[in-house]
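User: Batch of two.

Assistant: Item 1 of 2:
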Amino acid sequence: MTAPGKVSEDATPVKKLRVVMAQLDFLVGDIPGNTERVIQAAREAWQEHQADIVVFPELCLTGYPPEDLLLRPSLGIRVSDALEQLKQAKLEPAIVVGAPVRSGGLLFNAALVIEGGVLVGKYFKRCPPNYQVFDEKRYFAAGRNAKVLNIKGVPVGLTVCEDIWADGPVEDAAAAGAQLILNLNASPYDIDKQARRKALLERKAANNNVSIVYVNLMGGQDELVFDGGSMVVDHSGTLAAEVPQFKEGLFPVEFLCEHHCQPVSQLPCPEPSLEANVYNALVIGVRDYVNKNGFKSVVLGLSGGIDSALTLAIAVDALGKERVRAVMMPFRYTSSASLEDAEAQATTMGVQYDVFSIEPMYDVFMKTLEAPFEGTQPDTTEENLQARLRGVLLMSLSNKFGSLVLTTGNKSELAVGYSTLYGDMAGGFDVLKDVPKTLVFRLSRYRNTVAPVIPERVITRPPSAELAPDQKDEDSLPDYDTLDAILHLYVERDYSAEAIVAEGYERADVERVTRLVDINEYKRRQAPIGVRITERGFGKDRRYPITNGWKIGK
């Protein structure tokens, strides 16, 4: 009699085992569609790669994160129907899928193994995360036990995503006799995340003398982007195979299993630059948000500035020029350079391009406001009116033609409130929401190395909102290198103002910037969502009260 969780020592492993990593994009909530995707992928993995096992990402049947769909009363019925469909499909390879499963009155994030039309094993995620963008403890109970089972004669352990970042699950599976760990993931992208994953897997595999197959989700879901980057690390902690990030597909790895399951090493992927990786994340984020939500096209204001120029390039790369419309909305402060550069980029990229002056509308509004404004001096009210008129035009085009409005604000501007509610913040998706201004410049340079589409003058001239004569962003802000460094420490690292000053920054700059961040939370709460690319973006990551008495300082 074998002890619970242990594998019989009489089990004789096969000499070869072919595992296919299914790095695919699933739609949250579309359980029937996701189930069909699993079936088709498993059949293709058998036909094309003679797979013994096909491993899918975490919660692939529901998509990730399903959030409060997990609270719907019919969820269990739909998942049960999906599992029955998978069993009835009688797939040739064993499949490992992720799904929410109820047991003992509790809901678990589960990895399920179906082989020969039979559910042969289930594992409940032991470490549901509850930090940054993760909120799994709202929905899921924590599993308690390791799971090791024979798949095609090989002792295989199961873990799910966060389990591999914690102590216990991998160690327990290895102790229970696993030669191979299959780790199902929905790990969202952020800058340098792949390097942290590799270091972790290499350490876990070497410390536990077990090979690990890490399969990650691909695609965009609201503000999150999942980059794939699936990989295999052998029992010595050596990276044996790595799948390109931001690429869907079925990726086979062959193992020779005797005392260990040793993967046959593959050529390493070329290491992409930071700019290439971030740019790909933004493109995927826009593509999936637009397509999964059924928008025909997008429209954006093209100002002749660098933020809208980069947003246009990303939109065209994500959707194709036929689905992108750019609108220049000049005013008396719009420079000839802005007009020329916007038209040049629109022409180069082949998008529909319109020019609608806001001057007549502005004059009508100011005439209407003449009496209540009598005796006052022009200030940001008049500047904001310009932005709001542009927002009205874009939203009107959106309503009439079914286009999603892409806003163009970057993280630096949103952090300090340099954006206008119901103006340049009006729209459905902010492509650069988590991209600091200094990175906007780097991404623009990068995009022009692929093909020169952003006019050089847009990149080199000082940024300006052009809402007043001779206006420059840095007239009222520290230079962007300084601003972004302070914002990184305050927003992403949670440094206090005093701690930032101790890092060598001017006290006046630090106090001004941190105060602007704090008092503009009410704006960000009303902002459209956008792609998350850092460890801490504005949105699910950072949840500060609008009404509060917290003072900057220590």
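Item 2 of 2:
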Amino acid sequence: MPPNPPVMSVRDLRVAFGATEAVHGLSFDIHRGETLALVGESGSGKSATALSILRLIEREGGQITGGTIRLGGTRPANITSLRASELRALRGDRVAMVFQEPMTSLNPVMTIGAQICETLSLHRGLHGAAAREAARAALERVKVPEPAQRLNQYPHELSGGLRQRVMIAMALTCEPEVLIADEPTTALDVTTQAEILRLIASLQREMGMAVLFITHDLGVVSEIADRVVVLKDGLKVEEGFTADLFASPRADYTKELMAASPRLGEGAPVPLDNPAPVLQVNGLTTTYGGGLFARASAKAAVRDVSITLGRGETLGLVGESGCGKSTLARSIMRLVTPSAGEITLLGNRIDGLSRAALKAHRSHIQMVFQDPYASLNPRMSICDVVTEPAFLHGMVNRTDRKAMALDLLARVGLPADAVDRYAHQFSGGQRQRICIARALSVRPQIIVADEAVSALDVSNARRITDLMADIQKRDGVSMLFISHDIAVVERVSHRIAVMLNGQIVETGPTDRVLHDPQHSYTQRLLASVPRVAARHTPLRVAGAHPVDA
């Protein structure tokens, strides 16, 4: 078989942000019909490489300082030397990109139809009814239900999974030669993730396009990638066919990534023996919408939920996006007001308390959110950030705040010099540690962690969950751990509750629920979990082989 020339070749790519070089001499090829995965921790250079391929890195303050990025095929092009007008013609036509968070990538004030038609007008010269019909067909191709109606909707009216399908539809409208998928499933639950991955794979087979898949999820890599490039601090440390690399990784860093990656079936903490309850929820219902004159339009996001959390116990809460997990957490925190039911915190009913009366109880239960950067005030020093809850509750005075901050930062493994810095000066994993330190400042009995590690790479996620486990053992803190990553939930949870359409459909000790699931929905969830395994059969495209940097 004659060699298959690459559809894209990256040679000795160097990318810098000011005086700091983020990518150091990276080289790789991608062939037609092949999926190449770029993996590595946050800051390894994955996204900088992707943005460089589309020459979007300049918009982020970066610059390509060396190397070449070439497109092959019948119209060869050196992307690194194209003019602005040539780049506009190339983006979305020959090379397209799907980003991690579709809500920030889609225009919130334009309908879905208008955004797809804009791409068709620019690259295919379609307008009016012809463009609209092509847009409808594009949504139908990616299996968006009721595509004609979706054309008139805005991004906020769609679920996360549907928004990602819209992004894929837009990216594939012009049938690109290369699709760059930058963490496209990180924020999705396992069933939606499985659907998106199957969709990308089927469209790839149909169109014969090459896919550059950027992710920190090795389970996803082992299922979809033909070859893998491992990056660390902007350097390629290993490259190879997926099955070969997973069976016998050569680089120590690759071995560390695999060791940190959660695997379903590794075992769960031993259930506690009848711990005293610190939180009891009975018949909780939370309704959105409706109102005094529109009761028929009201929707129950949480319906008749009852759970118990014991002292020093972790209860894992799992389920698809939109099932009501976060609403349940926010209802327990009384950040939203339940419509019915009882919430008993440390023996006190809090469901009917006024906002003023709640203040005395808020120190007992604290929340750690998914996005640590959005949770931290960028104008406040870390000293003020981590001690603010304690200061507001009168547990520390102004003169003692720095001493408390130093103690809290030490407890979560951050250096003392962090105390006078600001949130933007820290990595995602470090910012999440700061959020945990802040929650600990009031010595809570319960921490609610709402997707607290879903946006982190596997190494940082492991460090954060290990930290939370250490805090629990040391302080006896109880945790409600919400996540769509069931392997992570298994590692940290004594018990699991499975949520579907606002209701708890199954609950029990973690090992029992995961190894002998009783409900069909739990069984479907578990079947969708990607497994880290060397069982993928590589495409072995003729001519595809590891490239030396």
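The two ends are 26 Å apart (CA to CA).
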